[in-house]
Design brief:
With 145 residues, this protein is of the alpha+beta class. Helices cover 59% and strands 14% of the residues. The strands form two sheets. A four-stranded mixed beta sheet has the order 4-1-5-6.
């Protein structure tokens, strides 16, 4: 009888440890350092070369159109990062985009900012000139000559 109780206790302890690892999150200070490491930082599913969800892919495509260099972090490879970034930003979904250390939003907000031209302005505020703006300026200059 006591061996059965020991086995059950051991199994329960292993289960609790597994749950603790699953639900543990990256410390806020570590995430803050990640967010501040570059002017633009994206927390996404997958990597820019191989996004693993349509929303992450859309953000990658938007940033690619603007020619933005950014840090990307794959939340699927680190469950503590996946939970930690949600707590850090108080935003429940992935992807998440940060510009100059500030949370901007996810796919829907990035798409809206891209369509309205607000993204070009936000990038300029941190010293990033959008490739779309450079292209427009080049075309305007060619028209004048």
């Amino acid at each position: 009888m006591s061996l059965n109780l020991f086995t059950k206790s051991k199994n329960l302890l292993q289960y609790a440890n597994t749950l603790a690892r699953f639900y543990s999150t990256k410390p806020a200070e570590e995430i803050k350092n990640m967010v501040n490491n570059n002017k633009v930082v994206v927390f996404m599913k997958g990597v820019p070369e191989q996004p693993r969800c349509g929303f992450s892919n859309a953000v990658v495509q938007i940033l690619r159109m603007h020619g933005v260099q950014y840090d990307a972090h794959d939340v699927l490879s680190d469950e503590s990062l996946r939970q930690g970034i949600k707590e850090f930003s108080n935003w429940p979904t992935i992807p998440q985009v940060f510009i100059n250390g500030e949370f901007v939003g996810g796919c829907d907000i990035m798409l809206q900012m891209h369509q309205s031209g607000d993204l070009i302005e936000e990038l300029e505020k941190v010293g990033i000139k959008s490739a779309l703006l450079l292209e427009k300026e080049k075309k305007d200059a060619e028209k004048k000559s």
